[in-house]
Amino acid sequence: KNQVEQSPQSLIILEGKNCTLQCNYTVSPFSNLRWYKQDTGRGPVSLTIMTFSENTKSNRRYTATLDADTKQSSLHITASQLSDSASYICVVTAHRSGAGSYQLTFGKGTKLSVIP
Amino acid sequence: NAGVTQTPKFRILKIGQSMTLQCTQDMNHNYMYWYRQDPGMGLKLIYYSVGAGITDKGEVPNGYNVSRSTTEDFPLRLELAAPSQTSVYFCASSYRGLASETQYFGPGTRLLVL
Question: How confident is the model over A58-67, as pLDDT tens digits?
Fold first, then answer.
């Protein structure tokens, strides 16, 4: 069964500090891994998408890494801001051959709170 | 572009009632999706569409129906509402499939079934 596990479940950090969120997955056959940011009461917004051959990708202060061998990913947030307070969701895509379809498995998310 | 819009934002239904959740995108995307998000859980795919006139079931389709008569619209129909359908519903779209395409999500519809 495809699974995506995120840790920690929640995290509180001081404004200006860095933090790293973790994502472990057991999804196959692997196609890509995505990180989303979801503000409270809003829909998820894409931060990064990484395929098998990519091991790092950045989007402003967000840097995602991927280790396809250990099936782990991390999202590093640099110099956190109050607006970074949100849930961060890891999503892994599996590619189903034949029909050419893709299946997304969503993690439960890490709730980040940045305090002044 | 407004992106992906959803209506209503919030709705309370009685058990057994029916309703349609509306979803519209103005990005000329071929693919559209419906997800539900239960508290503390990951999003689950209900239905998706790869183009006008084509729909397919996702992971949790029971109790729902969809149609795709135009590229822009992808309504989700609940026929006999049940308390288990209390959730937040998100519509999303992408230009092509999910090989490497970004999904764009709407703001969500919060549904409470009592």
Answer: 999 999 999 9
